[in-house]
Request: fold
Amino acid sequence: MRIFIVLLAMNALCSPYQNVERHRPNKVTTLKAVPVVMWHGMGDCCCNPLSMGYIRNVIEENVDGIYVKSLMLGENIASDTERGFLANMNELIKNACEQIRNDSLLQLGYNGIGFSQGGQFMRAVAQRCPTPPMRNLISVGGQQQGVFGLPYCPGDTRLCNIIRRLLDMGAYNHYVQQTVVQAQYWHDPLHEDDYKEKSIFLADINNARDMNPEYKKNLLNLKNFLLIKFKGDNMVVPKESSVHEEDSVDVVAVVVFYSADCITLFKMFQWFGFYKEGDLDTILPMNETKLYQEDRIGLKKLDETGRLHFLAVEGDHLKIDKETFIKEVIEKFLK
Reply:
């Protein structure tokens, strides 16, 4: 039986009452390999021994003398988990960049790994904070073009219900944008103008609103950008929902088409594919999107120079067997 790395299982969620390992310092003092910086996903935390702590151990066991830093975006485990739901992402990116800049073991560069929503957050670090340099970027199930519907919400039911109520106010509502993490990578293809004007995070890092040449320049400094998607991804719920007429569509109602087809579409978003503007029936692969064709952040250039890589993994969201992780991620991009 294969051993699975399950990064987002219900019994592995962080809380102050669970057996979460301490935010321990790495014992490495002399670097023998390029360090790794990790950003966890929604409902997880920096140091859960069943998720980020386990991944850290797997990397350390397979790369001699490597330094692995798992970002904690809060004062403690509880606040780190909470900030995966309620935070201003621009402030959290600044926090992450400051942690990286202030870490003496990262000054010569590092490899970044982001899990689920941490994938787009780690990309923002690469684009906004070029010093110290990120060498390789690995997005594990990241929603790089955003989401159009609330993903499966793990963890505290009360907190998840709060997020849903806030999204019901309107994902592009000013207060919601400043507060709800998932709203900040909400991408509504039926209202692209609202997305471009009001999205405070995703529209910015995807250069959808104004072209920031530094974002493209910094991403092109990567040696490699690996995008991992999961073939059996069931994160988006509900799986089935009625189709609403356009004039009745609101923030919650746009979880339409969440049948088996919708899950397939969600997986495409992990590879920068997305809905055609104004059309929920058509999904464009990455190379047919404006983001790619206009090369707004450097994806086309990375692709043409052989530095953009794609990996499709069997299994549900963030579920990858240990052997595959070692062979396809550690051996190829972390050694």
In short: Residues 34-334 form a domain with the Rossmann fold fold (CATH 3.40.50.1820). Confidence is low (pLDDT under 50) at residues 1-12, 16-20, 236-268. Residues 89-101 form the longest helix (13 residues). The chain has one domain: 34-334.
